[in-house]
Specification:
A hairpin with a 2-residue loop joins strand 1 and strand 2. The protein has 6 helices and 2 strands; from the N terminus they run ααββαααα. Helix 1 crosses helix 3 and helix 2 packs antiparallel against helix 3.
């Protein structure tokens, strides 16, 4: 009986040690991925703000755009070239830099052709899951934060507030794996 209890205790300790190491490794990977996804979501929110501001032009902020102008601005956001984004390391964690992110590079920025495509796919997915284009526009027009709505909510809209946001939008696309240049893919649409 003592041998059995000793064996069970040893199994429990070894199993617990293995689980702790596994959890620590997983959290590090999730933290790095989570930071990149949050940065990417902030970049998308920034682009929506830019395009709504451009479309709104000289209109007073009390006036609204026509629905077709809102849709055109929202779709143009996702169709943008998404250039100027890259990855850098900040405090030992990979972070996305570029317009709309709050990341200041400590080292040289690594430009990777996957980022324009990932940002475009994230934009398309967030726009597709928004009740309608006018929802985003009205949030922007009211002065509320598109980052709060798109990135700090629940479910799909939780890139900055969830520890398990899920895979990158479009990750199941073969285009990510074959190393095709984004400009070539983008020109096909």
């Amino acid at each position: 009986m003592k041998v059995f209890l000793l064996w069970m205790s040893a199994t429990l300790v070894v199993g617990t040690i293995g689980a702790d190491v596994d959890v620590v490794d997983t959290e590090v990977d999730n933290g790095a991925e989570r930071a990149l996804k949050c940065d990417a979501c902030k970049a998308v929110a920034f682009k929506f703000s830019e395009y709504f501001h451009e479309a709104h032009g000289d209109l007073l902020l009390t006036a609204s755009l026509k629905e077709e102008d809102i849709t055109e601005a929202a779709e143009a956001t996702c169709d943008d070239s998404w250039e100027g984004y890259g990855v850098t390391e900040v405090n030992g964690v990979e972070r996305l830099t570029g317009p709309g992110t709050d990341v200041q590079p400590e080292t040289e920025v690594e430009v990777d052709p996957i980022w324009p495509r990932r940002l475009q796919d994230m934009c398309d997915e967030l726009l597709g899951e928004t009740p309608d284009d006018k929802t985003l526009y009205n949030i922007w027009l009211s002065g509320n934060s598109l980052v709060d709505y798109l990135c700090k909510g629940d479910g799909l809209f939780a890139a900055c507030s969830s520890s398990n946001w899920g895979p990158w939008p479009g990750d199941d696309d073969d285009d990510y794996e074959d190393g095709e240049d984004f400009d070539y893919i983008h020109d096909e649409f």
